[in-house]
Structure formats: structure tokens, C-alpha cells
């Protein structure tokens, strides 16, 4: 198959492009490079630089490459930033998604995998969080993904567009060649590893007064290669119809536990300072991934937090300046 990967110069999209190529698929990456890196795009993939909100650009890409399916990663994805500037999030994530879906329907590409998020569940009643948990977006960012999921449900019903919405919890880890290089970096694991590398003095813990076992937030970290495998399985299962899955390892770790695990992996002290809470952070997000395990046979290759951090640590050590562009 030929898969169009939007946001394939970013962290998760570039790893998924790498894994798709390994699985023998053809890949076309579309990315504006506003947040991603040209060097992250696999050499074997075709690359088209442009903005998803540009329908003329998309028409040219679809006409030239005739993709069989789309994996849609391109988005702004920072909770705090979306609280500060919600309209940028609605314009980019909803605007970009709608323009993409329009082009797909117009060109007869009717299969899509959507990157959705755990930020749909700000106030979960039950943990681990299953797919039937009521959706309460925790931020404008989460709301943009909720809107896209709802639009896709209607496109399934009206246009025959088949989709899988994968609600990832916290992506982490690296392959030998691709890792996490957001600028500015806001994610916990890369920040902690930058401290271990001597590139930062300390990590700030965003609040230690949450109702959790040590007062810091609990998250479910999932290896980026396990995410990629879930995308490939979901794509192959689309023939059976559209679906929605929560995706994590089913175990939660506090911020302090992540820092402790990184200390063990890196063998460095990693100073930590407690600061105020970050707006929009729910206390605890842990996924129930039984549905995707049962229906698609997904099983994580990296279920262990230290192994996930180890893969990230190896990449950061080899690429202390990330992709350098
Ligand atoms: P990223 O910022 O590394 O990658 C996003 C890519 O999309 C960048 O390369 C950027 O240049 C591109 N992009 C953004 N807007 C665009 C536009 N309008 N047109 C073309 N390209 C555009 O992000 P990531 O961490 O790889 O996340 C990928 C997806 O996964 C996002 O949709 C995010 O919401 C979702 N997600 C991520 C996580 C996580 O832990 N990182 C968790 C849940 C969901
Ligand atoms: N976090 C932190 N300090 C940092 C970055 C993150 O304490 O410098 C916390 C954050 O509040 C959250 C967890 O670490 O509870 C994971 O945050 P991240 O930004 O990595 O992912 P998110 O959960 O926002 O998707």
C-alpha cells in the first residue's frame, strides 16, 4: 500500500514512517516543517513540504501520489499552549484535519488513522480508562481531537470513510535512528534526559499536591514503536470497519518515579525542583488497552518503563543536539 503520513517529520510520525517502510509499505510524508525536522523523514519516503490547510497543495499531493490510506499525525499538541492560545489550536488541528478529509473524499482515499489523545479524559470515573469512558476534554487541544473524531464518525456514516482513532497516552522512547526532539521540549522524559546529559541544571516537577501516591501526576508511558505497530494493525483491520482504541501500557508512573527510573538508566543524579502545577494537567491518566489487544492482537514489545527510557537515553546520547536543524 501507499500510505500518506501527515506530520511525518515529527516525533511519532517519523517513527511510524520508518516502521511502515520496514513492513514493506510505500510512504509519502507531508509536513510543513514548522515543528518537525527534514532529517527525521526516512530517506526511502517521498517528501512533500506544505501546510495541510492548503487545499491546492493537498490536491497536487493526492493527484501525484494517489495514496491508498492516510495516517494523520500533523497537529499542535501541547496542552498548556492550547490553553494559552486556543484559536491557534482550533485553526491548525481542526482546520488542517477538515481540509485533509475534504481532499481524501475528493480523491477517493477512504482510509485514515487519526492520532487522538488521552486528553479526551480530564475527569475519568474509572482508571484504567476504557473506550466507554465519557469524553471530557481537558483542554482546547483535547477538544480539537474530539471534534475530529466526531467529524470522522459522520464521514464514516455518509461517505464510507473508514477510520481508526488511536487515543495515545504518553508516547516515549526511540528507535536507533529516530527520537524525540521537540523545540522547545516540554515532555518529561526528554527533559529529564537533557538534565542527565548536562544540558539543563534540573527538572521542574509541576506540582506535588495531587491526590496520587507521592503527590505528583501519574501517566502511562508507551513506546513509540509499540504505537507504530498499533497503527499498522489498525490499518489492516479497517476492512472490518471503523474503530476507536485507547492505547497505553496500562501502568501508571508518577513524575517522581519517572525521574527515579531515569536516574537508574543514566547513572546520573538528575536534580529535581518542585514548582507549581501546569494548567490542564489531570492527576492520573492510565489506559485500558484490552480492546486493542483483544480485537487486533496488539501486544507491547516495550511494556517496561526503564526499557522505554533506556531506548530514549541511547538516542539522546548519540544525538545530544537532536536533529540539529
Ligand atoms: P510533533 O510536533 O513532533 O509532530 C507534528 C508534526 O506535524 C510536525 O513535524 C509539524 O511540523 C507537523 N505539522 C503541524 N501542523 C501542520 C500543518 N498544518 N501542516 C503540515 N504539517 C504540520 O508531534 P508528535 O509528538 O509526533 O505527535 C504526533 C501526533 O500525535 C499529534 O497529532 C499529537 O496530537 C498526537 N499525540 C501525541 C502524543 C505524545 O505523547 N507525543 C500523545 C497523544 C497524541
Ligand atoms: N512534567 C513535569 N515537568 C516537566 C514536564 C512534565 O513535572 O518539565 C509532568 C507533567 O505535569 C505531566 C507529566 O510530567 O504530569 C508528563 O508530561 P508531558 O508533558 O511529558 O506529557 P503530557 O502528560 O502533558 O502529555
Short description:
With 325 residues, the chain is an alpha/beta fold.
Description:
The protein is of the alpha/beta class. It folds into 2 domains: 2-172 and 221-246, NAD(P)-binding Rossmann-like Domain (Rossmann fold), CATH 3.40.50; 188-219 and 250-318, UDP-galactose 4-epimerase, domain 1 (Alpha-Beta Complex), CATH 3.90.25. Helices cover 39% and strands 18% of the residues. It is built from 10 helices and 14 strands. It has helices spanning 11-22, 55-65, 79-84, 86-107, 140-159, 188-196, 224-237, 255-266, 290-296, 305-318; strands at 2-6, 26-31, 46-49, 69-72, 111-117, 162-168, 170-172, 203-206, 218-219, 221-223, 243-247, 253-254, 272-275, 284-285. Strands 3-2-1-4-5-6-11 form a 7-stranded parallel β-sheet, with helices on both faces. Strands 12-9-14 form a 3-stranded mixed β-sheet. It is globular, with a radius of gyration of 19 Å. It starts with a strand and ends in a 7-residue tail after the last helix. It binds nicotinamide-adenine-dinucleotide and uridine-5'-diphosphate. The site of nicotinamide-adenine-dinucleotide has 27 residues, from helix 1, helix 4, strand 5 and strand 7. Uridine-5'-diphosphate binds next to helix 6 and strand 8.
Amino acid at each position: 500500500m501507499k500510505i500518506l503520513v501527515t506530520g511525518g517529520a515529527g516525533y511519532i510520525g517519523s517513527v511510524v514512517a520508518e516502521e511502515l517502510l520496514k513492513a514493506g509499505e510505500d510512504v509519502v510524508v507531508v509536513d510543513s516543517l514548522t515543528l518537525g525536522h527534514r532529517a527525521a523523514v526516512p530517506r526511502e519516503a517521498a517528501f512533500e513540504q506544505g501546510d495541510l490547510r492548503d487545499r491546492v497543495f493537498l490536491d497536487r499531493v493526492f493527484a501525484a501520489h494517489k495514496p491508498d490510506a492516510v495516517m494523520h499525525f500533523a497537529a499542535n499538541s501541547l496542552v498548556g499552549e492550547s490553553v494559552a492560545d486556543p484559536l491557534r489550536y482550533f485553526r491548525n488541528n481542526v482546520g488542517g484535519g477538515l481540509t485533509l478529509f475534504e481532499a481524501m473524499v475528493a480523491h477517493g482515499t477512504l482510509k485514515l488513522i487519526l492520532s487522538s489523545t488521552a486528553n479526551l479524559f480530564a475527569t475519568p470515573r474509572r482508571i484504567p480508562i476504557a473506550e466507554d469512558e465519557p469524553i471530557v476534554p481537558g483542554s482546547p487541544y483535547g477538544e480539537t481531537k474530539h471534534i475530529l473524531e466526531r467529524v470522522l464518525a459522520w464521514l464514516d456514516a455518509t461517505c464510507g470513510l473508514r477510520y481508526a482513532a488511536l487515543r495515545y497516552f504518553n508516547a516515549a522512547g526511540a528507535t536507533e535512528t529516530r527520537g524525540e526532539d521537540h523545540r522547545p521540549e516540554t515532555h518529561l522524559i526528554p527533559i529529564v534526559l537533557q538534565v542527565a546529559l548536562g544540558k539543563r541544571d534540573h527538572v521542574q516537577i509541576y506540582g506535588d499536591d495531587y491526590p496520587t501516591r507521592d503527590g505528583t501526576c501519574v501517566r502511562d508511558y508507551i513506546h513509540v514503536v509499540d504505537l507504530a505497530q498499533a497503527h499498522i494493525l489498525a490499518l489492516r483491520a479497517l476492512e472490518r470497519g471503523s474503530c476507536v482504541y485507547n492505547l497505553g501500557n496500562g501502568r501508571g508512573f508518577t513524575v517522581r518515579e519517572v525521574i527515579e527510573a531515569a536516574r537508574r538508566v543514566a547513572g546520573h543524579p538528575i536534580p529535581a525542583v518542585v514548582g507549581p502545577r501546569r494548567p490542564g494537567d489531570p492527576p492520573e491518566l492510565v489506559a485500558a488497552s484490552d480492546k486493542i489487544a483483544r480485537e487486533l492482537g496488539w501486544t507491547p514489545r516495550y511494556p517496561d518503563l526503564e526499557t522505554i527510557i533506556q531506548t530514549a537515553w541511547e538516542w539522546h546520547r548519540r544525538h545530544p543536539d537532536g536533529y540539529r536543524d
